[in-house]
Each structure stands twice: as C-alpha cells, then as structure tokens.
Amino acid sequence: MSEALLTVKNLSVDFHTARGTVHAVKNVSWSVARGETLAILGESGSGKSVSANAVMNLLDIPPAEIVSGEILYDGKDLLKVDYETHRALNGKKIAMIFQDPLGHLNPVYTVGWQIVEMMTAHGRPADAARQRALELITRVGLPEPEQAMRKYPHQFSGGQRQRLMIAMALMLKPDLLIADEPTTALDVTIQAEVLALLKELQAETGMGLVLITHDLGVVAEIADRVVVMNKGEIVETGTVREVYHAPKHPYTRKLIDAAPGKGEITLLDPSAPLLLDAQKLNKTYGSFAALKDVSLTIARGQSLAVVGESGSGKSTLARTLLRLEQADSGQALWKGRDLISMGAKELLGVRREIQMVFQDPTQSLNPRMSVYSLIAEGWDIHKLMPDRRARRARVIELLEQVGLSAEHVDRYPHQFSGGQRQRIAIARALALEPEMIICDEAVSALDVSIQAQVIALLDDLRRRLNISFLFIAHDLGVVRDFADTVIVMKSGEIVERGPTAQIFDAPQHPYTQRLLAANLDPDPDVQAQRRNAPVHA
Amino acid sequence: MADLTLAKPAKELNGRGPSILSMLWRDKLAFISAVVLILIVLFAIFGPMFLGDLATKQNLRGRNFAPFSMERGWALFLGGDSLGRSMLARLVVGAHSTILIAAGTVLAAAIVGAVLGLIAGYSGKTTSQVIMRLADVIMSFPSLLIAVVVLYVLGASIPNMILVLAITRIPIYLRTTRAEVLEVRERMFVQAAVVMGAGHARIILRHILPVVIPTLVTIATLDFAFVMLAESSLSFLGIGVQPPDITWGLMVAQGRPYLNTAWWLAFWPGLMIVITALSLNLLSNWLRIALDPAQRWRLEARKTKNV
Amino acid sequence: MKTDFRALHGLDLPLLEQFGRYVWDLLHLDFGESLRKARPAIDIVLEAYAWTLPLALITMGLVVVSAIVLGSLAAFRVGGFFDRLVSIVSLVGASAPDFWIAIVAIVVFALGLGWVPTSGVGTPLHWVLPIAVLFIRPFGLVVQVVRGSMLTALGSLYVKTARAKGVKNMPLVFVHTLRNGMLPVITVIGDQAAALLNGAVIVETIFGFPGIGKLMIDSILQRDFNVVLAAIMVTALAIFIMNILIDIAYGLLDPRIRH
C-alpha cells in the first residue's frame, strides 16, 4: 500500500499561445499507490487535468511544453521513454476515462468494436477480446451484453456510456485508472451508481485510481487522499479527513466554506400576497409528456426551487411560464391575469415584470454588445428611461448593486470571468425592476467558490427588493441554501412539495429520498456514515 | 475623473476603423491584394472614359504586333490584337464590363439570398422547406449549364447575364444566412432578448444580422472571383458578352485562333482574370479572420510580437 | 413541303394535344429527332455521355484519391510541405479560369513541347490534358474540405480516447479519424461531381472532345432545341441518381443517420 505505483515529481508544463505563455502547472508532485484512490481537486483553470494528460502522453506538444519534472512508473520516467514504449503502456497498464462519454466514444463504430479494440490494439486475439468484453459489459451492469456490443454510442444513455467506458478501460486489467471528471455530466442518482461501481471494481482488481474532480462531495465519497490545486499549483495534500477537517491553506478553507448545503434554511413568510398561481399545466412533445398537470404558486418575496434530474420537465416548466413554449392546457395567473392565454400586447407588459437568468452567461450575453447596451436593451424595448445621462447613471448603479463597478460599463462580455458575466446577466434582469426572476440552473455552470457568491447576491436581492424567485436546479445543496419552498419533479410530474426544511429532513416520496441519498456531502465522515447506513424508508 | 477611468477600455474597443486598416497593413499579401483590387476598380470606372476610343481604334499595321516594344508608343507595349487595336487599352477597358457584371451579380444574389435566408430561417416549416428545396434544385444543377440554357432562351446581354448568374449564386447566400440564423436564434442571448420582450424586428436587426453580415461579406468576396470566372467562361464560349463590348473572357476567345502566332492575344486577358481572382481569394482569406471576433487576435497578436 | 414538315412534327394538331403528346414523349425519354442530324436526339446525347462519363469518372477518381491522401497529410502536419502545396494548388484552382489554363497548357505542352496532341480523341495521350485541366478546380475545393474536416476530427475527443487506449498512429488516422472526417467530404464530392459538367463544357470545347459539354454548346449555337432538351433531361436524371448515391454513402458511413 505504501509503495507508490506512479509518481509525478516537480512537473511544470507551459502552454504557448499567441497571447503569451501560460504556466499550466508549476512544480506539481503527487503519487498514487496500488489499491489507493487519489483525488485531484480543483476549479476550472486550476490545471487539475494537465498532469494526468502528461501521464498519458495526451498533451499536444506544441503548444504545450514540459518544462521540467519526471513521471515515474515501474522504474521508468515516462517523460523520457520513446513514443512506442509509452503507447504500449497506455490502456494496458494505465487506462483513462473521461467526463463526457458521448464525445469520447467514436460515433461511427459500435461500442463492441471499440471495447474489443482495447485488446486488439495491444496485440491480443480478437475472440479472446470478445469474451472479455462480454464479461465486463455484464460486470458493469448493462443488460443484454450481446446486443449492447452491436449498438452505437448514441443509442445509450449517459450513465450507460460511462459504464461502457469503464468496461473498456478495464479490458487489460490496468494497474492504474485515471478518471477525469467521470460523473460531472451525470444526474446525481446515476453519479452515485457509477462511483459505487468504480469502488467495487477497484476492490476487486486492486488497481490504483486517480480521480480528477471539482466536487468536494465526490472526493468525500470515494477518495483516500486528496491533492488540492489552484492556479497550476498544489496548495494542499493529505488524507481526505485531514484536509476537510483541518485545512491549512486559505484556498482550501475557502473551497470548503463555499460548499453549498450548510447555511441556514430560509423560512417562507406566510402572509405574503400571491403573485403567480399556475394550475394543471400540460405540455407534450409528440408522445413525450414533458409536463403533467403541474400546479404551483409563488408569493411575493418567495423563493421556490424546482428540483429534478435531466428530463424531469423543470426547464420546460420555466419556458412555459415565460411563454417561450406554449402550454397545451392549464393556466398560470400572474396577478390575476392568465399568462398562458394573454395576447402579445399584454404579454409585453408582463415581460417587464418577470425576468430570467440563464445557466451559461457566456451564451446568454450577446458577445457583440457592451455591458451598457446589454443592460440598457430592456429600456429600449419597453421605452423606459429616455434620458441617456440618467441611463448611464442607472447602469452604473445596477453594476454596483451586483458587485461590479463603473469602469466595467463599456467593456464587452469576453473581458469578464464567468462569475462576473453572471453578475452582468443579473444586473440586466434587475434593470427592468422585475417582480419575479426565473433562474434556470443559474449557478450550475460556475465554480463552487463563485457559486456561493452569486447565491449570496441573489439572496440579498430577494431580501432587499422583495423579488420572488423561481429557482430551477439539480444541485440540492444550492437549493437548501437558497429556497424556502421546494418542488421535486420527476418525468414531468410533481412528486413532492413542501417547505425546504421538511423536504430535506423528512422526505416522504421514495424518489425524493433517493435523490437526497445520492446527494454527496462534502464531509467525508457524514458521507461514510450514509454509505454504511441503509437509505431512509 | 470618471472620464479617465472610462477612456482606456473605450479606446481599446471603439478603435475599430483604424485597427482594420492597420491589420490589413500587417498582412502584406492581403494588403497588396487590396491595392490591386482598388486599381482594377479604378480601371473599370475610368477606363472607358479615357481609353475607350483607343481600345476600338483599328490599326492595320499594328496587327498582332508583338509585346514589350516601345517602337510604336506605349499603347502597343503589350502588343496589338488581330485588328491592331491596343492590347493595353483593351485590357483596361475590359475591366468595365467584367467588374460591372460581377458586382451586379454579387450584389443582387447577396441581397436576395440574405433576405430569403432570413425568411427561411425565421419563418415556419412550410415556407422554409419550399425555399430550401428551390435552392437545392438550383444548386444541384451545374451553374454554367443553367446559364448557357437561360441565355440561349433569353438572348445574351449584360442585364440577362447578371440575372442568370445571380440566380445561380443565390443559394450560396441563402443557405449560409439560413444556417447562421437557425444557429443564432437558438443561442441563449436571443432567448434572453425574447424574454425581455424584444420583437422580431429587434431580434433580427440587433442580434442576428450583426453575426451574419461579416460571414456574408467574406463569402461575397470569394464569390466575386467565382462570378468573374463564370462570366469569362460564358463570354469565352460565345454566349456571354458580345462584341463590340469588351470583357477579358471574350478577349481570350478572340485570341484563341492565333495561339500559334500571337500567344499574347489570349494570354494577357487571362492573366488579368487570374490576378483579380487571386487578389479576391487572398483578401477573402484575410477577411474571414479579420471579421471574426473570436479569431481577430491572430492578426492583432502579430503586432505585440513585433513590438 | 411545309405541310409535310408540319405533319412530321405533329404541328398540325390542336395546341393542347401537341403539348400533351410532348409531355408524354418526354416522360418516355423521347425528345424527338435532332433538327440537324436527323437522328433521335436521345441517341446523340447518350453517345456524347459515353465519352463524358469515363472522362468524369477518371477525373473524379483522381480528385477523390489525391484529395484524401494529400488533405490528410496536410492536416497531420499543419504548415508543412504538403499543407503549403495544397493551399497553392487550391488557390490556383479558385483563381484561374479553366479555359485559360487549357489554352496555356496547349501552348506549352502541345505546341511548345509537343508531348501531347492539341485536340481530338483516339489515343490515351489525347486524354491527358483534358483530365489535367478538369482536375485542378475540384481538387482544390475537395482537398481544402478534407484538410479542414480531418483537422477537426484529429482534434476530437474520441481520438483522445483512442490515444489513451494506446492505438497506433496509422489506425488512429485511417481507422478512427478518416471515416469521421469523410462525412463532410462526401457532400462536397457530390457537389463537385455535378459541377464537373461546368468544366466539361469548357474543356471539351477547347480540346475537341466529343462529349456532352461540347454537344450542349454546339446544339445551342446551332439552335438544335431537341438535343438541348434531351441533354438537360438526361443530365438532370444523372444528377438525381448521383444525389441518391451520395445519400446512401452517407448512411453507410454514419450510423447516426441510419437510426
């Protein structure tokens, strides 16, 4: 256990771009032993994947340049061995799985062919490879392995594809498996299953596992040791419990504090007047029912969260209320007038009162418009604030309200970071002084530390301006921190609703219970306890 | 004070006009192409005015006069044609019809194509399908054959040529515009504008057109070269521009019987076509990068490297 | 004499019936007789196609093979020798009119060096210049698309997976990348195969090659309407069939379209 299987020593990698040299990782060292799970934790741009790509010889050189360091495996420095020797190790001794299995599987070949190729590429006979592939497909839990072999990647679900990737990686019983964000694109319940599978397989084979992730919960669930990276450097290393309970570096502390799901639960003010009353909304696409008799109410100043996995209909609900989609039946009374059936003219007035913040601010802000024109566009549309000087002053005021400043007014979206862009999007929503803001996964594209800041901002706006929020999310931690009421959706239906505290402490519906059980807590002890205790019910 | 803090970013971003020119200066090939094209446009505009008479003046003693000799004055420096007319003057005047046809065609095709593309991209399924199937039919048939047949029916004249060439080029602009519109209108920022209450006109003018126009300009530059080649092919075949009008394609055809004895009759006009088309191609390559905000830094970066 | 002519061509029948017969004949590929050669127009057109088809097939075959090989090589080493070669040939193809290339080629290789005959058919040498001139433009376009699409495919995530699996370089390029990279190329090859007829009109005229392009131009200049019509209809049919073949090829290459 103590002897290292793979050691990365003082690795530094630069990327040479036309805009100058970027130090992607600086002096990074880590090692992993047989049977051990090492997590490399970091936010976007931290360089957490770079060393793993160097191990697999997947860096494109140029633009990348390995400035210094060594990668020791089996007594050899992988940075010095020739191409052919390195190629022969890939897949056979060290295998890798990736975040998005659809993009990472070749679309024009059957998955069977691709899994078998793992062995034939290393000179093993094809019929033996087929046998092994069938065994492994069964082992990773896919039904009808014979048929699965003949299908193409696009015919599987995301979770199934990741299982197939895992089967492929294990074909030659590698000593080490590197998993780069293997569950990030998956729903929480599927994520829990895939992580459990990885742990079982590791126990069976005794391989080392390096898991690259941004999610403290994943680290708590699966890792023995963790390496925390920030801006290309390792800021902290240790066992998962040490690092979580006694973080030494301020960045680690910030990261742990930012993890959602620990704040005080907001309570609903029962005396607030009703703003939106939606009854029995239905929407079908062909034969697929996206919304089935969905009813909900929102009071002034209330923050209602809609939780569900992909395909649950939560986004369709938002789009229907905003009239981006037309509901098949049902009504949604906005201050007494039906949103679903109102005419274009009346709708224009309501559009000022309900605003939306989208998931990805990179896409929701027109890249060719300055911050000023982005925020002022709503006034153009609704013919408000004709005075240019007053407009400018108001734009600056709004920017300051969301934590930006006057100097940002004439810049363009690409000059900002992701978190700042989302602040601009929020300022744009506020410009029309809305009574309700619909947030569709508004923080899920952001890094954890920025997520916490944006949530705090939204919460502050809700309290100060008494705006209602319809908050669509899949991350239960974020929901717990922000919402006073929660609706749980599954396959287009509301399966449970209630005050946040009640949903989190005493979930009634089995699906809600499953969702909560699959949600990973950043605290490794809590996570260990959950794992050993049987699920509620 | 407020002005000071705002001055810097404003200068960086609003200095678009001069920065385009200096970016052009930095790419020498593109710069030379632009100069050549300006020169040819000047030929096209002023050529007939100043050299129109010289280009048609016959001189039997200058028949098939060999080039590169100043013996008979600058007019015959590039040689004389089969009727002793000045090749130099004819080449300059020939730019007129060539450029007129190409410009008219590209302008007409681009405008009609872009409007139809906007309609196809923005309207319901049926309208869009009808427009696209029509474009497919035009596209799938060889453009030169269409032109040949239509000119055969309508008769060869410059307006007819513009008409028929424009029809064969419309699908290019139509498809590009529609594809971009479909892509842009699904982007989140357009949805965001809809949620704010923006109407169709605003979405098309403010959000969609600014993305589509640079692409269209780039294609139009490339297409200008293509149309020029098509026009010269038609004129060469004898179903395009008719004498006494002059175009480079027609000049090549007129020189063809004398390949054995006077190669310059067919060579110079061909070379003019090549130079113009080459400049257009090079400029279009540059435009593709210069007009794309995501790629512009490639051109801007050269500056910082040198300084 | 005049009435004979009218009776022969059915011009004495009522107008509507004339039109009805006419459409009926067209549907049976009966375009009447050539006004010049006193033979069925369809026969003349099919004879011409018998010359153009091998010319087009040989040219397109050369274009496809060389564009795929050179385009892939150019994509594999961006900025290298093949990349430069490819971009120069493409630029020439997009800038030089084919009739001019043909004329310069005749002056240099036929009149000057005397390596090949100037025009006509008969020996394999007669085919060299027409094929060479026809080749340049479609090659320039297809090779650019191959290069771009191979670049995209080489940078894709599944190639990264294959590298992580330890797949060797040759299968990486020719098994994992090429089949994906071919998808956009197929469409362009289809477009260019149709556009080849544009070049055929020019090249056949200049080299005195008795194919469909020359026939079209000759018939138009001689106002032989039936032959022109027959040529158009047969060409349309040929393009229609080719588009179907392209769609089938697409489905064979990409399982996502099949399902």
UniProtKB/TrEMBL annotation, chain A:
Keywords: ATP-binding, Nucleotide-binding, Transport. InterPro entries: AAA+_ATPase, ABC_transp_ATP-bind, ABC_transporter-like_ATP-bd, ABC_transporter-like_CS, Oligopep_ABC_C, P-loop_NTPase. SMART domains: AAA (SM00382). Its main location: membrane. One of its GO terms (biological process) is peptide transport. Belongs to the ABC transporter superfamily. This is ABC transporter ATP-binding protein. It comes from Devosia aurantiaca.
From TrEMBL, chain B:
It is found in: Cell membrane. One of its GO terms (biological process) is transmembrane transport. InterPro entries: BP-dependent_transpt_permease (IPR050366), MetI-like (IPR000515), MetI-like_sf (IPR035906), OppC_N (IPR025966). The chain crosses the membrane at residues 29-52, 99-123, 144-168, 217-241, 261-283. Keywords: Cell membrane, Membrane, Peptide transport, Protein transport, Transmembrane, Transmembrane helix, Transport. GO terms for cellular component: plasma membrane. CDD domains: TM_PBP2 (cd06261). Gene3D superfamilies: MetI-like. It comes from the Bacteria. The keyword Nucleotide-binding does not apply. Its main location: membrane. It is a multi-pass membrane protein. This is ABC transporter permease.
UniProtKB/TrEMBL annotation, chain C:
GO terms for cellular component: plasma membrane. The chain crosses the membrane at residues 55-76, 88-115, 127-159, 180-207, 227-253. Keywords: Cell membrane, Membrane, Transmembrane, Transmembrane helix, Transport. It is a multi-pass membrane protein. It is found in: Cell membrane. Pfam families: BPD_transp_1 (PF00528). SUPFAM superfamilies: MetI-like. One of its GO terms (molecular function) is dipeptide transmembrane transporter activity. InterPro entries: MetI-like, MetI-like_sf. It comes from the Bacteria. Gene3D superfamilies: MetI-like (1.10.3720.10). Residues 49-246 form the ABC transmembrane type-1 domain. PANTHER family: DIPEPTIDE TRANSPORT SYSTEM PERMEASE PROTEIN DPPB-RELATED. Belongs to the binding-protein-dependent transport system permease family. This is ABC transporter permease.
